[in-house]
Amino acid sequence: MDKIQEILQQLSLEEKIALTTGANNWQTVSFEKYGVPSVVMSDGPHGLRKEQVDENNPNVFNSVKATAFPTASLAACSFDRKLVGQMGKALGEECITQGVDLLLGPGVNIKRSPIGGRNFEYFSEDPLISGELGAAYINGVQSNGIGTSLKHFFANSQEFRRVTGSSDVDERTLREIYLTNFEIAVKKGKPWTVMAAYNKINGCFATENAKYNENVLRDKWGFKGAIISDWGATHDRIKALIGGTDLTMPKEQATAEVVQKIKHSPELQKVLDRNCERLLALALKVKEQRDKRKKESFKRSLKPLEVAQKVAEESLVLLKNKDQILPISKKQKITFIGDFAKNPRYQGFGSSHVNSIHVISALEAVSKITEVSFSQGYQADGQDALQLRSEAAEKAKKSDLAVVFVGLPETYESEGYDRSHMKLPEDHVKLIDAVSKANPNTIVVLQNGSPVEMPWADKVKGIIEMYLGGDAGGQAIVNALFGIVNPSGRLAESFPYKLEDHSSYLFFGGEGDHVEYREGVFVGYRYFETKKMPVRYPFGYGLSYTTFDYTDLVVDQKDDKASAKVTVTITNSGDRTGKEVVQLYVSPHKGNIIRPVKELKGFTKVTLQPKESKQVSFELDHRSFAYWNVEEKDWSVETSDYDIIIGKNAHENILVQTIHIVGDTVKNQKLTELSTIGDLLKNPNGVKYWEKISDRFFEAVTESGFANQKTDTKQVTADELKEQKNNDMYKLLLSLPITTLSQMIPEYSLEKLKQDIAEVNHGSWRLY
Ligand code: BGC
Asked: Rounded distance, CA 202 to CA 175, Å?
């Protein structure tokens, strides 16, 4: 008998029930007599928020000092799995030094709307980026023998009514967008735990949702760890146990009623045992790792602040660089303007809030390089300050160049509530106006957790999107401004001109406790590109101080099935070392299924010395071409042409090659007499049948005069009708039901037609 079973047999029912909830806010219950330790958890995701137990100061911000790393919204822009993995490794090491076994992160939820209050904690609007970087983070943390909790599973994309609301989403959208991110992270990262979200999914709480927790996450994706509830997300202990949530957090004493119910139900006891097995496995894993560390005497391999700085440097996004205003030369007379230069906005608000060791402001960082003047520009409390603005404009006028630091104050975006608009504070916008009027050589540095509208973008020469850069964000900004690093971040989300342009705009927030995801799969760039809607900056966008050329796109297909190897060569054609994010999109030609015009299916980041070339390759598989087939309850590929696109970003194609793919045979799709003639012609047997009957049909149509109703100038003959596949009659025919055949052909009875259709159905039908 294995250790887990041995312990399980010794645990009393009451002990088992106690095991399924916390011992307190952050720990599981220990059973020393059976060798079961307590697992210590801590937030996450971008730094350690290990609460200090202080009865006199029970404050979420009273956590141990730790390094604040860039938030996921920034780290995602690195498009760099290795770098995010390194950040994970550094975080894992922080956990070890603080006695934490399990870090509550990463958050891979999809940014459905730019105004989601917690967007700073999430990677992207795209499931591939979210899943891949989530997996990289998990692998990094877990390489230390520290566990992660992949959160928040799932369809948790708004804060408004976050604990009671239901995300009402059709199955195809769930699979393609809101589950794919988790699927990739689970399969590639193998997190020790997954955190069940607060919200309901189509009316069923995430903590109670066996359909996804058990059938999809565990059975289909092979997740072997434990599911823990978000803090306070369990509403019914029994339903949560059945729904696959193994651990309710934080501590919640089971009521006598719950205990009695379990006591009297052998089925519930089986479920309880199942969940306890998973929790015991987690605890024993923790014990094993602790023992290993004791033996090997742990030593950090990474300096957290250095890693935080590197992530910030490689992720910040250069949005605009008119007249090559950047990088700045030290010889210029420079002024820094804006309170954020001195008191940066560098992390998000809520459970991910870190008690930072030392935040480096841009002003502090620049002082090590050169002298700059400074003016505050606006009041930190948001009160309009004409005087501060005038002083700033005055300094700008007397300088060669002005760098304006603006963004979103902390209260604008937070866990727990969403934004209502995408605008910067009014006094920040007024400041940009005043400074750019005083000196056209104005550069704006943005510090914000999520996209903002930029009606002022044309007035300035340079824009850097810094997001929330963590402790070393200020250093990273200065290094980018002065060209010590070459910007290489690319936006992991679209920046629309205005909130109203966004596909989620009409429905975000929902009505009461229901939010319908009516835009379906058209999230972010999937919508903007399909709708041909211009945006301020597209997904995948970002500039560099060097330039890159792309050549030699080769798409290698072994056969006509859904798989291909894609190679492309990238050359640094400028004179500085730089990093390029190579982006591969797949674009299905119009078929039967309504799909986004393109979707990201591969990405990688390469470093290139001046004039250096590198070849990169991507493997495309069935999933790269597939959509979720609701009837088949599986992924299907349509027979079609597909463009393989190497894109500069989601909007700009660089190289394109079209390939043909023969898709999947779709079973179960039987023809009925109400299927259309168009449907019939997609079926190989149907085509044969049509070849037999169509001559007679066209004759009958012509005899009836039906084909010539529209015009009395040119009479169409049966042969013409058959040949001119593009004429209006033919198009009309394709959407008529098959019964039309027996209606038009006098001697062809409905009964005979039904028999023929039954025969056609013996074959199978390929999607076109
Ligand atoms: C958040 C989680 C967090 C937990 C513990 C919840 O409110 O949604 O992300 O890990 O609190 O602080």
From this structure: 14
Q: Which atom of ligand 1 is nearest to the CA of 43?
A: 10
299-306: Cβ within 8 A, 24+ apart:
300/93, 300/97, 301/89, 301/93, 302/86, 302/89, 302/90, 302/93, 303/90, 304/67, 304/69, 304/90, 304/91, 304/93, 304/94, 305/67, 305/357, 305/358, 305/471, 305/472, 306/472
Pairing of strands 653-661, 578-588: unpaired
In the predicted structure, residue 763 carries a pLDDT above the cut 90: no
* Residues annotated as catalytic (active site), given as ranges: 230
pTM across the whole model = 0.94
- The rounded distance, in Å, linking the Cα atoms of 430 and 384 is 9
- At residue 23, what is the residue type? A
Q: How far apart are CA 318 and CA 276, in angstroms?
A: 50
Task: Tell me which of 103, 199, 230, 414 to substitute to probe ligand 1's pocket, judged by most ligand atoms within 8 Å of the beta carbon.
Answer: 230
Percent helix, strand, coil in the chain, to 5, is 35, 20, 45
DSSP 698-720: HHHHHHHTGGGSS-SSSPPPHHH
User: Is residue 690 in contact with ligand 1, taking CB distance under 6 Å?
Assistant: no
Give the Å distance between the CA of 159 and the centre of ligand 1: 12
CA 356 / ligand 1 centre spacing (Å): 19
| Contact assessment for residue 655 and residue 645, using Cβ atoms and an 8 Å cutoff | yes
If we measure between CA atoms, which residue out of 193, 185, 196 comes closest to residue 226? Answer: 193
pLDDT at 612: 98
Q: Where are the beta strands (DSSP E) in 339-478?
A: 355-356, 373-375, 401-407, 442-447, 462-465
Q: Kindly state if the Cβ of 43 falls inside 6 Å of ligand 1.
A: yes
Helix H or strand E encompassing 182? helix 180-189
Beta pairing partners, 392: none
- Report the pLDDT averaged over residues 699-723: 67
Residue 524 near residue 126 (C-beta atoms within 8 A): yes
Whether a cis peptide bond, with omega within 30° of 0, leads into 610 is no
Q: Which whole number is the average pLDDT over 214-240? A: 98
Q: Whose CA is nearest to atom 2 of ligand 1?
A: 230
pLDDT band with cut points at 50, 70 and 90 for residue 768:
very low
Q: Whose C-alpha lies nearest to ligand 1, atom 3?
A: 351
What spacing in Å lies between the alpha carbon of 455 and ligand 1's midpoint? 35
CA–CA gap between residue 418 and residue 439 (Å, rounded):
36
Q: How many Å lie between the centroid of ligand 1 and the Cα of residue 343? A: 26
HSE value, Cβ hemisphere, 13 Å, CA-based, for 662: 7
Among protein residues, the one whose CA lies closest to atom 12 of ligand 1: 351
| d(C-alpha 570, C-alpha 574), whole Å | 12
For 272, residues 6+ apart whose C-beta sits below 8 A from its C-beta are 13, 16, 17, 20, 241, 262
| 155: number of Cβ within 10 Å | 29
287-308 confidence digits (pLDDT tens): 999 999 988 888 899 999 999 9
- If DSSP states are collapsed to H, E and C, what string results for 733-756? HHCCECHHHHHHCCCCCHHHHHHH
231 lines ligand 1 (CB under 6 A): yes
Is the CB of 230 within 6 Å of ligand 1?
yes
Say how many Å lie between the CA of residue 143 and the centre of ligand 1: 23
User: End-to-end distance of the chain based on CA atoms, in angstroms?
Assistant: 54
Contact 149, 197 (CB under 8 A): no
Identify the CA nearest to 647 among candidates 706, 595, 580.
Answer: 580
231, 248, 415: residue to mutate for ligand 1 pocket, most atoms within 8 A of CB: 231
CA–CA dist 478, 485 (Å, integer): 9
